[in-house]
Amino acid sequence: xxxxxxxxxxxxxxxxxxxxxxxLKEEKLxxxxxxxxxxxxxxxxxxxxxxxxxxxxxxxxxxxxxxxxTAVVIEIKRGQLxxxxxxxxxxxxxxxxxxxxxxxxxQAKNFLKKGADAEFDFNDHLAAxxxxxxxxxxxxxxxxxxxxxxxxxxxxxLGSVALWLREHxxxxxxxxxxxxxxxxxxYIEPTIIVPPPVRFADVxxxxxxxxxxxxxxxxxxxxxxxxxxxxxxxLQLARIMQERLQMDEPVWNQKFYISxxxxxxxxxxxxxxxxxLILGFSVKAKAFQATQLAKTLGIEKYDAEETLSEKFSLPxxxxxxxxxxxxxxxKIHVKEDFKLGSKVFLEFLKAAYKARxx
Length: 358
Known about the structure:
The chain is 31% helix and 27% strand. The protein is an alpha+beta fold and 358 residues long. The protein has 2 domains: 194 residues, 3-Layer(aba) Sandwich (Trna Endonuclease, Chain: A, domain 1), CATH 3.40.1350; 142 residues, Yope Regulator, Chain: A (2-Layer Sandwich). Strands 3, 4, 5, 6, 7, 8 and 9 form a 7-stranded mixed sheet that branches. Strands 10-11-12-15-14-13 form a 6-stranded mixed sheet. A two-stranded antiparallel ribbon has the order 1-2. The termini are far apart.
């Protein structure tokens, strides 16, 4: 339907144009996106442009992080390519999937030209981004990867490929950018082509496939969110909760975590991940001290002053955060080295249950 300009005399249609008519190369999209990533319709922390992949001759156009810590590979479509852009993006995502947290920190410092700045703290930079995006906690990086392909014409065969990839659990988004001209001013209108927008015919219709954690949360967490190892750990923890504390089944219907509720209050949230579980206990203020708890459980204490790469390389560790005058949050980051069936952990569970907030 196009773009319309409203003036005192009425509405006039703004002329649709094309990048090549205005002598704008699609490389300009990179400039615009780097300066304002929200063009892509979501909060993104840009950490790289023309990123060289080690041991290859490949360069990906843009690299970003979203508020969940997912690595986002952004490719700009520029006409004919030696390899189709969708294949390129998949290949680049496979490369990025092997990166560690310190690789992202190093890449971000280079991109932001902070490599020589000893006082620059990437963790603070990431935390500020997450806070602006409405995320309370700094996420662990690269638990998954996503793809965004953007250009002035991305419909054709790309749409079919992208829909097929999404059906097979590959998170890919296609954005088409249309250009308009009004006098000397150029406007752009980004439109998300894939995933397709909700149409009126879909409103009110059950769509269980779009929210699988609601229709079968247990399968979602055990089969999709967890690896075989963390699945085994989660099931072991569920057995412990039932046998030792006589707890009922947890609530499974949240996307990122499951919860144990006591008297209608969340006592324990367990964030499910492929490489770890994060146990978050709501307890009375000052019921536990992080240093003593770390010593008792034989794990590390989370230190807010450490660098991001140091934090993520920690083995199992604990953090105690004050939430209010009456409540603390005890967070235990459980990795594969942690013994869930140990006597000290079982004793802690009982103490945390007694110290729960009501």
